[in-house]
TrEMBL record:
<keyword id="KW-0805">Transcription regulation</keyword>
<keyword id="KW-0238">DNA-binding</keyword>
<dbReference type="InterPro" id="IPR015927">
    <property type="entry name" value="Peptidase_S24_S26A/B/C"/>
</dbReference>
<dbReference type="Pfam" id="PF00717">
    <property type="entry name" value="Peptidase_S24"/>
</dbReference>
<dbReference type="InterPro" id="IPR001387">
    <property type="entry name" value="Cro/C1-type_HTH"/>
</dbReference>
<dbReference type="GO" id="GO:0003677">
    <property type="term" value="F:DNA binding"/>
</dbReference>
<dbReference type="InterPro" id="IPR036286">
    <property type="entry name" value="LexA/Signal_pep-like_sf"/>
</dbReference>
<feature type="domain" description="Peptidase S24/S26A/S26B/S26C">
    <location>
        <begin position="154"/>
        <end position="276"/>
    </location>
</feature>
<protein>
    <submittedName>
        <fullName>Helix-turn-helix transcriptional regulator</fullName>
    </submittedName>
</protein>
<dbReference type="InterPro" id="IPR039418">
    <property type="entry name" value="LexA-like"/>
</dbReference>
<keyword id="KW-0804">Transcription</keyword>
Length: 285
């Protein structure tokens, strides 16, 4: 006789319960909106840069401005930024903000004010050993810019040490933005433009003693060969600087003054205050 085979059956459906937390669906991030808003802020920042055109040619001007300040992004990349097709990397974002003279948090996220307060800006300049001064400008009419003139008497010969408190505004010069563009002036931002008066004979081929010079105080390092306002071991100069392996070559455009190199530990005594963008040659008639 075959014994019956019994199989245990458990009603899992009736016995088993599953605890499940309620699902919370998070809305998807609208990345296109983020890019659109960034592009709008980028274009707003560029509207105040004299060397950047308002429409056609803006991408070329932006690319050249960033390249002059050490950012090697391609024109395709800057084109995408302006058209809200992409955004820069965070490190590049901070450099772009510095070049345009706006706060990185504002440029990237739209947080806070577009520009830093004057007090904060002055504190940063003091800590970085840049000539301490109030470089804030009066606002001119649309299409114009007021550039303050500082009589720092930059010595272009043997150098001249100025007292730390000797910074005096002589006057404000009002220029049209179109004129600056026509002269090929490319600056970090309009508020960084100011004027100094050069003295000495070492740069006579380029400008003479007493000529007004437009400088960009937003440039505080030698990113490319050019004429700079700088101090070396406490003496103030306006001379041409050339990047060489291991250092900087100081060149006087007057052949009577031989060039010399700054290398090694001497580089610690070099402070770049600004880059000279334009010289107005004066001549007695």
């Amino acid at each position: 006789m075959v014994e019956p085979h019994y199989q245990l059956s458990v009603d899992l459906k009736g016995q088993l319960t599953i605890d499940q937390a309620p699902c919370k669906y998070q809305p998807m991030v609208d990345t296109q909106k983020i890019r659109d808003e960034f592009a709008a802020r980028l274009n707003k920042a560029l509207d105040g840069v004299p060397s950047v055109r308002a429409a056609r040619g803006r991408n070329t001007d932006l690319h050249e401005l960033l390249r002059a300040n050490g950012l090697s992004s391609s024109k395709q990349a800057t084109h995408k930024w302006l058209r809200a097709e992409a955004m820069p990397e965070k490190d590049n974002m901070r450099l772009i903000a510095r070049v345009l003279g706006v706060r990185a948090e504002w440029l990237e996220y739209g947080h806070g004010d577009m520009h830093s307060s004057a007090g904060a800006e002055g504190a940063v300049e003091k800590e970085s050993n840049v000539i301490a001064a109030d470089f804030s400008q009066k606002r001119a009419r649309d299409g114009e810019i007021d550039i303050p003139h500082y009589d720092v008497r930059a010595a272009m010969g043997a150098g001249q040490v100025l007292p730390s408190d000797y910074i005096e505004t002589i006057r404000h010069v009002t220029l049209s933005l179109e004129f600056l563009r026509s002269q090929g002036v490319s600056c970090t931002q309009p508020d960084n433009l100011c004027m100094i008066t050069g003295f000495g004979e070492s740069m006579n081929k380029t400008f003479t003693s007493g000529d007004p010079l437009i400088i960009d105080k937003g440039v505080t390092s030698v990113v490319t060969d050019g004429v700079y306002l700088f101090t070396l071991s406490g003496a103030l100069f306006v001379k041409r600087l050339q990047i060489i392996p291991g250092g900087i070559r100081v060149i006087s455009d007057n052949d009577a003054y031989p060039p010399y190199d700054i290398t090694g530990t001497d580089l610690k005594n070099l402070t770049i205050h600004a880059r000279v963008l334009l010289a107005w040659r004066s001549q007695r008639l």
